[in-house]
Amino acid sequence: MDKKQSRLRRARRGRAHIKTLGATRLCIYKTPRHMYAQIITPEGNTVVASASTLDGDVRKGVKSTGGVDAASVVGKVVAERARAAGVTQVAFDRSGFKYHGRVKALADAARENGLEF
């Protein structure tokens, strides 16, 4: 089993647990160059809020889009947009990525800006 398949297996396990909770989820995805975050309804068919390092307002505040600083800005922006849409309680779907570095920075910034998980 290669690295990507292992990550996707971990992601399936996490998403199955979140589905049993019936919670709105904060789903992330990362590439070496960018970071993406979405708030998705429990049914999984609607994106309530999203942010990424491709957004203009996120790019203004960071020097590089692939680092921890950029991930924390994405977490802050997605939390603000979620609160504007009326969502405060979410489950953190890390998409099988290990909880350290950029993933941890995004989660901490989202918590500091009003999301509860």
Give an account of the 3D structure.
- This protein has 117 residues and is of the alpha+beta class.
- The protein has a single domain (3-112), classed as Nucleotidyltransferase, domain 5, CATH 3.30.420.100.
- Helix content is 44%, strand content 18%.
- It has helices at residues 3-21, 56-60, 68-84, 102-112; strands spanning 25-30, 35-40, 47-52, 91-93.
- It starts with a helix and ends in a 5-residue tail after the last helix.
In summary, what is this structure?
Strands 3-2-1-4 form a four-stranded mixed β-sheet.
- CATH architecture title: 2-Layer Sandwich
Query: What is the CATH C-level name?
Result: Alpha Beta
Q: Which structural class do you get from the secondary structure elements?
A: alpha+beta
Specify the number of helices: 4
Query: How helix-rich are the residues, as a percent range?
Result: 40-55%
Key traits:
single chain, about 120 residues, alpha+beta, Nucleotidyltransferase, domain 5, four-stranded mixed β-sheet, 4 strands, about 45% helix
